[in-house]
Amino acid sequence: MKQTFSIPDELLSAYIDRQVSEAELRRVEKALLAEPTLQQHLETMQATVALLNNAPTLAAPRAFVLSENQVLAAGGRVKRARQPSFWERWLPRLMPVATAFIAILFIFAFVTLPSQQVALKSVSLGDAASSVVTSQEAAVIVTEMPVATMDMQAMEKPAPRAVPSQARSLEETGKEKEAKSMNAAPAKEPAVMQAQSAEEAAAATSDEAGPEGEKVVETPQETASQPSPAFTPPFDFSLITWLLGILLIIFIFLTWRVTFARSRKK
Amino acid sequence: MTSKNTYFKAKLAFKHTILIVTKPLLMDESKLIVAAQNGDLPAFNQLVLKHQTLAYNVAYRILGDPDLAADATQDAFIKAYKALGSFHGGAFKPWLLRIVTNTCYDYLRSAKRKPTDSLDDELDRAEYNPRFRDKSEEPGSYVERKELNEVIQWSINQLNEHQRAVVVLVDIHGLSYEEASDALGVSLGTVKSRLSRARARLRDILQEHQELLPQQYRFPNRERVSAISQ
After folding, report:
1. How many domains does chain B divide into?
2. pTM for this one?
3. Residue B171 is part of a domain; what is its CATH number?
4. Cβ-Cβ contacts under 8 Å, B193 against chain A
5. What is the ipTM of this complex?
6. Which of A7, A160, B50, B63 has its CA 20 to 30 A from that of B198?
Protein backbone atom coordinates (compact mmCIF):
# COMPACT_ATOMS: atom_id res chain seq x y z
CA MET A 1 0.00 0.00 0.00
CA LYS A 2 1.35 3.30 -1.02
CA GLN A 3 2.14 5.67 1.79
CA THR A 4 0.84 9.21 1.73
CA PHE A 5 2.80 12.12 3.13
CA SER A 6 1.89 15.59 4.17
CA ILE A 7 4.24 16.93 1.52
CA PRO A 8 3.39 16.00 -2.08
CA ASP A 9 6.09 14.55 -4.39
CA GLU A 10 6.02 17.64 -6.58
CA LEU A 11 7.01 19.90 -3.70
CA LEU A 12 9.56 17.40 -2.47
CA SER A 13 11.08 17.21 -5.94
CA ALA A 14 11.24 21.00 -6.16
CA TYR A 15 12.74 21.08 -2.65
CA ILE A 16 15.59 18.85 -3.83
CA ASP A 17 16.38 21.40 -6.54
CA ARG A 18 15.79 24.33 -4.17
CA GLN A 19 13.09 25.57 -6.51
CA VAL A 20 10.68 26.45 -3.70
CA SER A 21 9.57 29.66 -2.03
CA GLU A 22 10.56 30.60 1.51
CA ALA A 23 7.16 29.53 2.83
CA GLU A 24 7.36 26.17 1.02
CA LEU A 25 10.86 25.65 2.31
CA ARG A 26 9.81 26.19 5.94
CA ARG A 27 6.83 23.91 5.44
CA VAL A 28 8.92 21.07 4.01
CA GLU A 29 11.60 21.34 6.71
CA LYS A 30 8.98 21.34 9.46
CA ALA A 31 7.35 18.23 7.95
CA LEU A 32 10.70 16.47 7.59
CA LEU A 33 11.37 16.99 11.29
CA ALA A 34 7.94 15.74 12.21
CA GLU A 35 7.80 12.73 9.85
CA PRO A 36 10.79 10.37 9.78
CA THR A 37 9.24 8.38 6.93
CA LEU A 38 9.07 11.55 4.85
CA GLN A 39 12.78 12.01 5.49
CA GLN A 40 13.38 8.47 4.19
CA HIS A 41 11.12 9.18 1.24
CA LEU A 42 13.18 12.27 0.46
CA GLU A 43 16.42 10.33 0.71
CA THR A 44 15.30 7.76 -1.85
CA MET A 45 14.27 10.49 -4.21
CA GLN A 46 17.60 12.23 -3.71
CA ALA A 47 19.35 8.93 -4.43
CA THR A 48 17.37 8.63 -7.66
CA VAL A 49 18.37 12.14 -8.69
CA ALA A 50 22.01 11.43 -7.78
CA LEU A 51 21.92 8.29 -9.89
CA LEU A 52 20.57 10.21 -12.87
CA ASN A 53 23.15 12.93 -12.36
CA ASN A 54 25.84 10.29 -12.71
CA ALA A 55 24.49 8.78 -15.90
CA PRO A 56 27.40 8.25 -18.29
CA THR A 57 27.71 10.59 -21.23
CA LEU A 58 28.15 9.04 -24.63
CA ALA A 59 30.53 10.37 -27.20
CA ALA A 60 28.83 11.33 -30.44
CA PRO A 61 29.26 8.47 -32.91
CA ARG A 62 30.15 10.88 -35.68
CA ALA A 63 30.27 14.56 -36.50
CA PHE A 64 26.80 15.80 -37.35
CA VAL A 65 28.03 18.69 -39.47
CA LEU A 66 25.82 19.39 -42.44
CA SER A 67 26.87 19.24 -46.05
CA GLU A 68 25.45 21.52 -48.72
CA ASN A 69 23.74 18.56 -50.33
CA GLN A 70 21.97 17.63 -47.10
CA VAL A 71 20.69 21.15 -46.64
CA LEU A 72 19.63 21.55 -50.26
CA ALA A 73 17.91 18.17 -50.25
CA ALA A 74 15.97 19.26 -47.18
CA GLY A 75 14.91 22.44 -48.94
CA GLY A 76 17.28 24.74 -47.10
CA ARG A 77 19.38 27.46 -48.64
CA VAL A 78 23.10 27.87 -48.50
CA LYS A 79 24.95 31.08 -49.19
CA ARG A 80 27.67 30.15 -51.58
CA ALA A 81 31.00 31.80 -51.13
CA ARG A 82 31.61 34.57 -53.73
CA GLN A 83 33.58 33.23 -56.64
CA PRO A 84 36.86 35.14 -57.00
CA SER A 85 37.30 37.05 -60.24
CA PHE A 86 39.82 36.04 -62.90
CA TRP A 87 42.43 38.48 -61.62
CA GLU A 88 41.82 37.56 -57.99
CA ARG A 89 42.51 33.96 -58.88
CA TRP A 90 45.44 34.42 -61.20
CA LEU A 91 47.19 37.55 -60.00
CA PRO A 92 48.73 35.95 -56.91
CA ARG A 93 50.13 33.22 -59.17
CA LEU A 94 51.26 35.45 -62.01
CA MET A 95 52.94 38.13 -59.94
CA PRO A 96 55.78 35.96 -58.61
CA VAL A 97 56.39 34.62 -62.13
CA ALA A 98 56.49 38.14 -63.56
CA THR A 99 58.81 39.26 -60.78
CA ALA A 100 61.12 36.36 -61.41
CA PHE A 101 61.14 37.17 -65.13
CA ILE A 102 62.02 40.80 -64.49
CA ALA A 103 64.74 39.73 -62.06
CA ILE A 104 66.25 37.52 -64.75
CA LEU A 105 66.05 40.35 -67.27
CA PHE A 106 67.71 42.69 -64.79
CA ILE A 107 70.58 40.31 -64.18
CA PHE A 108 70.97 39.70 -67.93
CA ALA A 109 70.99 43.42 -68.65
CA PHE A 110 73.43 44.11 -65.87
CA VAL A 111 75.89 41.55 -67.16
CA THR A 112 75.57 41.80 -70.94
CA LEU A 113 74.44 45.27 -72.04
CA PRO A 114 77.06 47.23 -74.07
CA SER A 115 77.53 50.06 -71.62
CA GLN A 116 78.71 47.67 -68.99
CA GLN A 117 80.81 45.74 -71.47
CA VAL A 118 82.48 48.87 -72.69
CA ALA A 119 83.08 50.01 -69.20
CA LEU A 120 84.62 46.69 -68.35
CA LYS A 121 86.75 46.72 -71.50
CA SER A 122 87.92 50.21 -70.87
CA VAL A 123 88.98 49.25 -67.41
CA SER A 124 90.89 46.24 -68.72
CA LEU A 125 92.48 48.02 -71.58
CA GLY A 126 93.70 50.81 -69.34
CA ASP A 127 96.61 52.79 -70.77
CA ALA A 128 96.45 51.05 -74.11
CA ALA A 129 93.22 52.82 -74.91
CA SER A 130 94.64 56.19 -74.00
CA SER A 131 97.68 55.64 -76.19
CA VAL A 132 95.49 54.86 -79.20
CA VAL A 133 93.93 58.28 -79.01
CA THR A 134 94.11 59.74 -82.47
CA SER A 135 94.25 63.16 -83.89
CA GLN A 136 90.49 63.35 -84.23
CA GLU A 137 90.22 62.84 -80.51
CA ALA A 138 92.36 65.83 -80.09
CA ALA A 139 89.97 67.70 -82.32
CA VAL A 140 87.03 66.44 -80.27
CA ILE A 141 88.59 67.80 -77.18
CA VAL A 142 89.42 70.99 -78.95
CA THR A 143 85.77 71.38 -79.97
CA GLU A 144 84.77 70.84 -76.40
CA MET A 145 87.25 73.42 -75.24
CA PRO A 146 86.16 76.94 -74.38
CA VAL A 147 85.66 79.44 -77.17
CA ALA A 148 88.76 81.27 -76.10
CA THR A 149 90.81 78.25 -77.07
CA MET A 150 88.91 77.91 -80.31
CA ASP A 151 89.85 81.46 -81.26
CA MET A 152 93.42 80.47 -81.47
CA GLN A 153 94.77 81.46 -84.83
CA ALA A 154 96.80 78.31 -85.17
CA MET A 155 93.67 76.19 -85.36
CA GLU A 156 92.39 77.96 -88.46
CA LYS A 157 94.01 75.91 -91.24
CA PRO A 158 94.81 72.37 -90.13
CA ALA A 159 91.46 71.82 -88.50
CA PRO A 160 89.44 71.31 -91.73
CA ARG A 161 91.90 68.67 -92.79
CA ALA A 162 91.48 66.87 -89.56
CA VAL A 163 87.69 66.70 -89.81
CA PRO A 164 87.29 63.97 -92.52
CA SER A 165 89.80 61.68 -90.91
CA GLN A 166 88.17 62.39 -87.59
CA ALA A 167 84.76 61.27 -88.92
CA ARG A 168 86.20 58.09 -90.30
CA SER A 169 88.00 57.18 -87.17
CA LEU A 170 84.92 57.91 -85.08
CA GLU A 171 82.86 55.55 -87.19
CA GLU A 172 85.41 52.87 -86.58
CA THR A 173 85.60 53.48 -82.91
CA GLY A 174 82.00 54.46 -82.27
CA LYS A 175 81.45 51.66 -79.82
CA GLU A 176 84.38 52.77 -77.78
CA LYS A 177 83.03 56.22 -77.23
CA GLU A 178 82.48 55.76 -73.55
CA ALA A 179 85.92 54.39 -73.11
CA LYS A 180 87.23 57.55 -74.68
CA SER A 181 85.14 59.71 -72.48
CA MET A 182 86.33 57.81 -69.48
CA ASN A 183 89.88 58.16 -70.64
CA ALA A 184 89.42 61.74 -71.70
CA ALA A 185 91.52 63.07 -68.91
CA PRO A 186 94.65 61.09 -69.72
CA ALA A 187 94.03 61.63 -73.40
CA LYS A 188 93.98 65.35 -73.08
CA GLU A 189 97.72 65.74 -72.87
CA PRO A 190 98.46 64.00 -76.17
CA ALA A 191 95.54 65.84 -77.63
CA VAL A 192 97.02 69.13 -76.65
CA MET A 193 100.30 67.99 -78.12
CA GLN A 194 98.49 67.11 -81.31
CA ALA A 195 96.88 70.50 -81.29
CA GLN A 196 100.25 72.09 -80.91
CA SER A 197 101.63 70.08 -83.83
CA ALA A 198 98.61 71.09 -85.85
CA GLU A 199 99.37 74.65 -84.88
CA GLU A 200 102.86 74.32 -86.22
CA ALA A 201 101.63 72.75 -89.42
CA ALA A 202 99.17 75.54 -89.80
CA ALA A 203 101.92 78.06 -89.36
CA ALA A 204 103.93 76.30 -92.07
CA THR A 205 101.10 76.18 -94.54
CA SER A 206 99.74 79.65 -93.83
CA ASP A 207 102.35 81.20 -96.09
CA GLU A 208 101.46 78.84 -98.93
CA ALA A 209 97.80 79.43 -98.57
CA GLY A 210 98.21 83.14 -98.98
CA PRO A 211 94.93 85.00 -99.67
CA GLU A 212 92.88 81.84 -99.47
CA GLY A 213 93.72 81.68 -95.82
CA GLU A 214 90.62 83.62 -94.87
CA LYS A 215 88.32 81.07 -96.53
CA VAL A 216 89.89 78.21 -94.76
CA VAL A 217 89.78 79.98 -91.47
CA GLU A 218 85.98 79.91 -91.24
CA THR A 219 85.62 76.14 -91.81
CA PRO A 220 87.01 74.90 -88.51
CA GLN A 221 84.91 77.39 -86.64
CA GLU A 222 81.72 76.03 -88.25
CA THR A 223 82.78 72.47 -87.51
CA ALA A 224 83.41 73.34 -83.92
CA SER A 225 80.06 75.04 -83.48
CA GLN A 226 78.15 72.15 -85.18
CA PRO A 227 79.21 68.87 -83.68
CA SER A 228 79.19 65.94 -86.03
CA PRO A 229 76.33 63.30 -85.67
CA ALA A 230 78.98 60.91 -84.40
CA PHE A 231 79.35 63.12 -81.34
CA THR A 232 75.70 63.07 -80.30
CA PRO A 233 75.53 60.83 -77.24
CA PRO A 234 74.05 57.48 -78.28
CA PHE A 235 71.34 55.77 -76.13
CA ASP A 236 72.70 54.96 -72.75
CA PHE A 237 72.15 51.26 -72.27
CA SER A 238 72.72 51.48 -68.54
CA LEU A 239 69.36 53.28 -68.39
CA ILE A 240 67.68 49.98 -69.25
CA THR A 241 69.40 48.35 -66.33
CA TRP A 242 68.25 51.13 -64.06
CA LEU A 243 64.68 50.89 -65.33
CA LEU A 244 64.67 47.14 -64.89
CA GLY A 245 65.99 47.55 -61.36
CA ILE A 246 63.23 49.99 -60.47
CA LEU A 247 60.63 47.76 -62.13
CA LEU A 248 61.94 44.80 -60.15
CA ILE A 249 61.57 46.65 -56.86
CA ILE A 250 58.02 47.65 -57.78
CA PHE A 251 57.11 44.09 -58.73
CA ILE A 252 58.59 42.65 -55.54
CA PHE A 253 56.46 45.07 -53.56
CA LEU A 254 53.34 44.25 -55.60
CA THR A 255 53.95 40.52 -55.25
CA TRP A 256 54.17 40.93 -51.50
CA ARG A 257 50.95 42.97 -51.49
CA VAL A 258 49.08 40.52 -53.70
CA THR A 259 50.15 37.34 -51.96
CA PHE A 260 50.90 37.97 -48.29
CA ALA A 261 49.20 41.26 -47.48
CA ARG A 262 45.95 40.14 -49.10
CA SER A 263 45.94 36.79 -47.33
CA ARG A 264 46.53 38.59 -44.02
CA LYS A 265 43.46 40.74 -44.63
CA LYS A 266 41.35 37.63 -45.06
CA MET B 1 68.98 39.30 -47.62
CA THR B 2 67.41 36.10 -48.95
CA SER B 3 67.38 34.44 -45.54
CA LYS B 4 65.76 37.54 -44.01
CA ASN B 5 63.14 37.55 -46.73
CA THR B 6 62.44 33.84 -46.24
CA TYR B 7 62.17 34.34 -42.50
CA PHE B 8 59.75 37.22 -43.02
CA LYS B 9 57.62 35.16 -45.41
CA ALA B 10 57.63 32.16 -43.09
CA LYS B 11 56.62 34.36 -40.16
CA LEU B 12 53.73 35.80 -42.14
CA ALA B 13 52.64 32.38 -43.35
CA PHE B 14 52.71 31.05 -39.79
CA LYS B 15 50.63 33.96 -38.49
CA HIS B 16 48.21 33.51 -41.35
CA THR B 17 47.81 29.80 -40.59
CA ILE B 18 47.23 30.45 -36.89
CA LEU B 19 44.61 33.04 -37.76
CA ILE B 20 42.78 30.67 -40.09
CA VAL B 21 42.78 27.87 -37.52
CA THR B 22 41.76 29.94 -34.51
CA LYS B 23 39.36 32.41 -36.05
CA PRO B 24 36.30 30.12 -36.00
CA LEU B 25 37.13 29.08 -32.44
CA LEU B 26 37.34 32.68 -31.33
CA MET B 27 33.99 33.65 -32.81
CA ASP B 28 31.36 33.68 -30.13
CA GLU B 29 28.06 31.88 -30.43
CA SER B 30 25.96 34.92 -31.23
CA LYS B 31 28.17 35.81 -34.20
CA LEU B 32 28.02 32.24 -35.45
CA ILE B 33 24.24 32.29 -35.17
CA VAL B 34 23.97 35.54 -37.12
CA ALA B 35 26.29 34.17 -39.78
CA ALA B 36 24.33 30.92 -39.94
CA GLN B 37 21.08 32.88 -40.26
CA ASN B 38 22.59 34.51 -43.34
CA GLY B 39 23.14 31.11 -44.88
CA ASP B 40 26.70 30.56 -43.72
CA LEU B 41 26.82 26.77 -43.42
CA PRO B 42 30.37 26.55 -41.99
CA ALA B 43 29.32 28.90 -39.17
CA PHE B 44 26.34 26.67 -38.42
CA ASN B 45 28.60 23.63 -38.46
CA GLN B 46 30.68 25.29 -35.74
CA LEU B 47 27.52 25.39 -33.65
CA VAL B 48 26.83 21.77 -34.52
CA LEU B 49 30.28 20.73 -33.31
CA LYS B 50 29.74 22.63 -30.08
CA HIS B 51 26.35 21.11 -29.25
CA GLN B 52 26.36 17.74 -30.97
CA THR B 53 27.35 15.70 -27.90
CA LEU B 54 24.54 17.18 -25.83
CA ALA B 55 22.02 16.79 -28.64
CA TYR B 56 23.03 13.21 -29.28
CA ASN B 57 22.88 12.26 -25.60
CA VAL B 58 19.44 13.82 -25.17
CA ALA B 59 18.22 11.94 -28.23
CA TYR B 60 19.80 8.72 -27.00
CA ARG B 61 18.17 8.98 -23.55
CA ILE B 62 14.75 9.77 -24.99
CA LEU B 63 14.85 7.17 -27.75
CA GLY B 64 16.94 4.53 -25.97
CA ASP B 65 18.63 3.46 -29.18
CA PRO B 66 22.03 4.74 -30.32
CA ASP B 67 21.43 4.40 -34.06
CA LEU B 68 18.01 5.96 -33.91
CA ALA B 69 19.45 8.71 -31.74
CA ALA B 70 22.14 9.44 -34.35
CA ASP B 71 19.51 9.71 -37.08
CA ALA B 72 17.32 11.91 -34.92
CA THR B 73 20.24 14.17 -34.06
CA GLN B 74 21.15 14.61 -37.70
CA ASP B 75 17.55 15.40 -38.60
CA ALA B 76 17.30 17.81 -35.70
CA PHE B 77 20.33 19.75 -36.90
CA ILE B 78 18.91 19.97 -40.42
CA LYS B 79 15.62 21.24 -39.00
CA ALA B 80 17.50 23.67 -36.79
CA TYR B 81 19.40 25.07 -39.76
CA LYS B 82 16.20 25.56 -41.70
CA ALA B 83 14.44 27.09 -38.70
CA LEU B 84 17.26 29.47 -37.76
CA GLY B 85 15.28 32.36 -39.18
CA SER B 86 12.74 31.91 -36.40
CA PHE B 87 15.41 32.19 -33.72
CA HIS B 88 15.21 35.71 -32.34
CA GLY B 89 17.97 35.80 -29.77
CA GLY B 90 17.96 34.32 -26.30
CA ALA B 91 19.62 31.09 -25.32
CA PHE B 92 20.52 28.88 -28.24
CA LYS B 93 20.89 25.63 -26.28
CA PRO B 94 17.25 25.34 -25.10
CA TRP B 95 16.06 26.35 -28.56
CA LEU B 96 18.14 23.60 -30.14
CA LEU B 97 17.09 21.06 -27.53
CA ARG B 98 13.47 21.84 -28.23
CA ILE B 99 14.01 20.81 -31.83
CA VAL B 100 15.89 17.70 -30.70
CA THR B 101 13.15 16.61 -28.28
CA ASN B 102 10.41 17.27 -30.82
CA THR B 103 12.31 15.25 -33.39
CA CYS B 104 12.65 12.45 -30.86
CA TYR B 105 8.90 12.56 -30.19
CA ASP B 106 8.34 12.20 -33.93
CA TYR B 107 10.69 9.24 -34.05
CA LEU B 108 8.98 7.59 -31.10
CA ARG B 109 5.60 8.01 -32.68
CA SER B 110 6.63 6.90 -36.15
CA ALA B 111 8.66 3.95 -34.96
CA LYS B 112 5.95 2.90 -32.55
CA ARG B 113 8.52 1.11 -30.61
CA LYS B 114 7.22 -1.36 -28.10
CA PRO B 115 8.41 -0.78 -24.56
CA THR B 116 10.73 -3.45 -23.28
CA ASP B 117 8.95 -5.95 -21.13
CA SER B 118 11.81 -7.14 -19.04
CA LEU B 119 15.15 -5.80 -17.94
CA ASP B 120 16.76 -9.15 -18.78
CA ASP B 121 15.64 -8.88 -22.40
CA GLU B 122 17.08 -5.39 -22.55
CA LEU B 123 20.33 -6.45 -20.95
CA ASP B 124 20.61 -9.48 -23.23
CA ARG B 125 20.46 -7.20 -26.23
CA ALA B 126 23.07 -4.90 -24.79
CA GLU B 127 26.33 -5.26 -26.61
CA TYR B 128 29.78 -3.95 -26.13
CA ASN B 129 29.59 -0.26 -26.84
CA PRO B 130 32.95 1.36 -27.46
CA ARG B 131 31.46 4.83 -27.02
CA PHE B 132 31.16 4.18 -23.31
CA ARG B 133 34.75 3.14 -23.06
CA ASP B 134 37.25 5.60 -21.73
CA LYS B 135 40.75 4.49 -22.76
CA SER B 136 42.17 5.36 -19.36
CA GLU B 137 39.43 3.44 -17.62
CA GLU B 138 39.98 0.14 -15.81
CA PRO B 139 38.03 -2.80 -17.30
CA GLY B 140 36.11 -3.29 -14.03
CA SER B 141 35.12 0.34 -13.92
CA TYR B 142 34.02 0.18 -17.53
CA VAL B 143 31.76 -2.81 -16.82
CA GLU B 144 30.26 -1.07 -13.79
CA ARG B 145 29.59 2.10 -15.74
CA LYS B 146 28.08 0.13 -18.60
CA GLU B 147 25.74 -1.67 -16.22
CA LEU B 148 24.76 1.58 -14.56
CA ASN B 149 23.99 3.08 -17.94
CA GLU B 150 21.85 0.13 -18.94
CA VAL B 151 19.85 0.23 -15.72
CA ILE B 152 19.27 3.96 -16.05
CA GLN B 153 18.28 3.67 -19.68
CA TRP B 154 15.95 0.78 -19.01
CA SER B 155 14.33 2.79 -16.20
CA ILE B 156 13.90 5.84 -18.39
CA ASN B 157 12.35 3.71 -21.10
CA GLN B 158 9.53 2.91 -18.65
CA LEU B 159 8.47 6.56 -18.58
CA ASN B 160 6.22 8.24 -21.08
CA GLU B 161 7.88 10.52 -23.62
CA HIS B 162 7.16 13.79 -21.78
CA GLN B 163 8.50 12.49 -18.51
CA ARG B 164 11.57 11.14 -20.29
CA ALA B 165 12.32 14.46 -21.86
CA VAL B 166 12.08 16.44 -18.66
CA VAL B 167 14.09 14.01 -16.56
CA VAL B 168 16.77 13.78 -19.26
CA LEU B 169 17.09 17.56 -19.54
CA VAL B 170 16.99 18.42 -15.85
CA ASP B 171 18.47 15.44 -14.03
CA ILE B 172 20.88 14.05 -16.60
CA HIS B 173 21.98 17.17 -18.44
CA GLY B 174 21.55 19.65 -15.62
CA LEU B 175 19.32 22.23 -17.30
CA SER B 176 17.51 24.61 -14.99
CA TYR B 177 13.73 24.53 -14.77
CA GLU B 178 13.55 27.66 -16.89
CA GLU B 179 15.77 26.19 -19.58
CA ALA B 180 13.78 22.97 -19.54
CA SER B 181 10.60 25.00 -19.79
CA ASP B 182 12.01 26.77 -22.88
CA ALA B 183 13.30 23.55 -24.38
CA LEU B 184 10.04 21.70 -23.96
CA GLY B 185 7.78 24.62 -24.68
CA VAL B 186 5.76 24.13 -21.53
CA SER B 187 5.19 26.19 -18.40
CA LEU B 188 7.41 26.06 -15.35
CA GLY B 189 4.63 24.41 -13.36
CA THR B 190 4.33 21.67 -15.99
CA VAL B 191 8.05 21.05 -15.78
CA LYS B 192 7.84 20.72 -12.00
CA SER B 193 4.92 18.32 -12.05
CA ARG B 194 6.32 16.19 -14.88
CA LEU B 195 9.67 16.05 -13.20
CA SER B 196 8.25 15.02 -9.82
CA ARG B 197 6.17 12.29 -11.42
CA ALA B 198 9.13 11.07 -13.44
CA ARG B 199 11.38 10.99 -10.38
CA ALA B 200 8.79 9.18 -8.30
CA ARG B 201 8.28 6.61 -11.04
CA LEU B 202 11.99 6.07 -11.48
CA ARG B 203 12.49 5.77 -7.75
CA ASP B 204 9.88 3.04 -7.61
CA ILE B 205 11.39 1.17 -10.57
CA LEU B 206 14.91 1.41 -9.24
CA GLN B 207 13.88 0.41 -5.76
CA GLU B 208 12.44 -2.77 -7.23
CA HIS B 209 15.65 -3.51 -9.17
CA GLN B 210 18.23 -1.95 -6.96
CA GLU B 211 20.24 -5.15 -6.76
CA LEU B 212 21.28 -4.30 -10.31
CA LEU B 213 22.68 -0.97 -9.21
CA PRO B 214 26.29 -0.45 -8.16
CA GLN B 215 26.73 -0.41 -4.38
CA GLN B 216 27.20 3.32 -4.04
CA TYR B 217 23.94 4.04 -5.88
CA ARG B 218 21.72 1.70 -3.88
CA PHE B 219 18.90 3.28 -1.95
CA PRO B 220 18.80 3.77 1.80
CA ASN B 221 17.91 0.66 3.79
CA ARG B 222 14.28 -0.27 3.35
CA GLU B 223 14.24 -2.17 6.62
CA ARG B 224 15.04 1.06 8.35
CA VAL B 225 12.22 2.78 6.49
CA SER B 226 9.70 0.09 7.36
CA ALA B 227 10.92 0.01 10.98
CA ILE B 228 10.48 3.73 11.21
CA SER B 229 7.06 3.58 9.61
CA GLN B 230 5.92 0.87 12.07
Report:
1. 1
2. 0.56
3. 1.10.1740.10
4. 10
5. 0.75
6. B50
